[in-house]
Design goal:
Layout: H1 2-13, H2 19-30, H3 36-40, H4 42-51, E1 59-63, H5 72-76, E2 82-86, E3 96-102, E4 105-108, E5 113-114, H6 116-127, E6 140-143, E7 162-168, E8 171-179, E9 195-199, E10 206-211, E11 214-216, H7 234-248, E12 252-260, E13 264-271, H8 278-282, H9 287-303, H10 309-320
Antiparallel strand pairs: 1-6, 2-3, 2-6, 3-4, 4-5, 7-8, 7-12, 8-9, 9-10, 10-11, 12-13
Length: 328
């Protein structure tokens, strides 16, 4: 028991944030309950982003009822690739990625052949609430399939890598790149076996990674190094993330973004309860960084000043970038 207590105190001293602290000091404190639908429903998030001039994957159509499944052909038209996902899903569950057509059938990104009726069945399952938060009835979203930038070819297995940035009151505090693996089924979900790679906030250069809670330096499928990769347009990603505070009004969020080879940075979704594995990926705790942002807010409030997204980004990059790794 004493050993566990000493371990906990050591982690606390390094600023490692636990789930209880995250919930009590940040999620409950900074996220007003009535604003949750903005981030919990991907369709609402997408609509708000479009209104704000923020780039997102194009929405082809929405299916809300069993009867509307008949509209699927009209929605996808002659497109050979698209994504079907639950509006209120979590953890990547329920998402079907179609990469091509094969005669009168479709081919998923993993190469599996599926029929039109199987896609309809997937949509029906989404509508029933099988993948939604709380099991409530849901809507199915059909949207543009992101094609990852070529920079990820050597460090990702199928699927679409994404970038998550934790944002506190509009200030980016930590970032990681999530890379699909064979074990994750091509999904950028850490719980399913994807890799989390820390990212230096100032430069956008990747650090070492974590896979199944183990530290790694190479992708298990491609065997290429995951560290030392310069992510393109990093300042653009940081400003996009910072601007999501005004977009949703929530003070503590995870902003998930992708880099499309043709369309550049796109907002994928927002998360009001972002996970804490990002700390392992960065070898650094969230608590000290969060406290630094709160101190900054107090300082500015005393002067009657509010910083815009660009100023907040610059503050975070200057304070949190190029920090030596802290072993966890």
């Amino acid at each position: 028991m004493l050993g566990l207590w000493k371990t906990w105190k050591a982690l606390e001293a390094k600023g490692i944030m636990g789930i209880n602290r995250r919930n009590a000091d940040y999620v409950l404190k900074y996220n007003k309950r009535h604003l949750y639908p903005i981030v919990d429903d991907k369709i609402i998030t997408k609509q708000r982003a479009i209104e704000a001039g923020i780039h997102v994957p194009e929405m082809y159509g929405v299916i809300s009822t069993e009867k509307e499944i008949d509209n699927l052909d009209k929605i996808i038209g002659e497109r050979s690739d698209f994504v079907v996902k639950p509006a209120q899903g979590a953890g990547g569950d329920g998402i079907l990625v179609i990469a091509d057509r094969f005669e009168d059938r479709f081919k998923t990104v993993s190469g599996k052949i599926v029929s039109h009726s199987e896609i309809e069945q997937q949509i029906s399952s989404i509508l029933s609430g099988l993948y939604s938060l709380g099991g409530h009835r849901d809507r199915a979203l059909i949207e543009y399939r992101v094609t990852p930038d070529s920079i990820f070819k050597s460090i990702s297995y199928e699927g679409v890598p994404d970038i998550r940035i934790i944002v506190l009151m509009g200030y980016p505090v930590m970032a990681m790149l999530r890379l699909p693996t064979r074990q994750s089924g091509g999904k950028a979900n850490l719980h399913q076996g994807a890799i989390g790679v820390g990212v230096d906030l100032a430069t956008g250069v990747t650090l070492r990674g974590t896979w199944l809670n183990n530290k790694i330096s190479k992708h298990p499928d491609t065997t290429n190094a995951v560290d030392g990769v310069q992510l393109p347009n990093w300042d653009g990603f940081m400003k996009l993330a910072a601007g999501c505070y005004e977009l949703c009004g929530l003070g503590y969020i995870g902003v998930d973004m992708v880099l499309d080879q043709d369309k550049g940075p796109l907002i994928l979704e927002l998360n009001a309860r972002p996970g804490l594995n990002i700390q392992i990926a960065n070898d650094c705790g969230l608590t000290h960084r969060a406290h630094a942002v709160e101190a900054r807010l107090e300082e500015l409030a005393a002067k009657g000043i509010q910083e815009n997204a660009e100023e907040r980004t610059r503050f975070s990059q200057e304070l949190f970038g190029h920090i030596p790794a802290v072993e966890i």
